[in-house]
């Protein structure tokens, strides 16, 4: 039952927003009593925290699944972007922005984990891109990891309407890739832009 509650809570928080969903709403959707809900979670804050940590872990697993496909580094970034677009297509607005606004302590905790996990993915992508000739050899991997991470998360950390986020993310990815790509990398970028239109 605990897992069912978490799954339903994650779905509702993403679709309707963290603030607007109540414990009553979740209990009603699951056709259980509030007493049953409180048996597993002391309050909404505890449920938000656990659901959000679970969402972060789920995202990381999906990113790793994309990485394991062995795409070239530029295609890999486009596939990850596509995965996030699909995952958050029903979200009312950016979950990161909502967390920061309504649950700042949970936001801070989750963002620390995100920084570590996704910075490692970005770093690995850049290093592989250099080795395979898609990115220029002289780029500073740590610096560009921070640049891109900051760029993407600044999109999610603002009150932008959710339907505008995928286009902004795409533009951020194109901007990032053009800044570091070799001629071979630019050709692959153009190929991805053509096939992902």
TrEMBL record:
Pfam families: TetR_N. PROSITE patterns: HTH_TETR_2. Keywords: DNA-binding, Repressor, Transcription, Transcription regulation. Residues 1-59 form the HTH tetR-type domain. Signal peptide: none annotated. SUPFAM superfamilies: Homeodomain-like (SSF46689). Residues 22-41 bind DNA. InterPro entries: Homeodomain-like_sf (IPR009057), HTH-type_TetR-like_transc_reg (IPR050109), HTH_TetR (IPR001647). This is TetR/AcrR family transcriptional regulator.
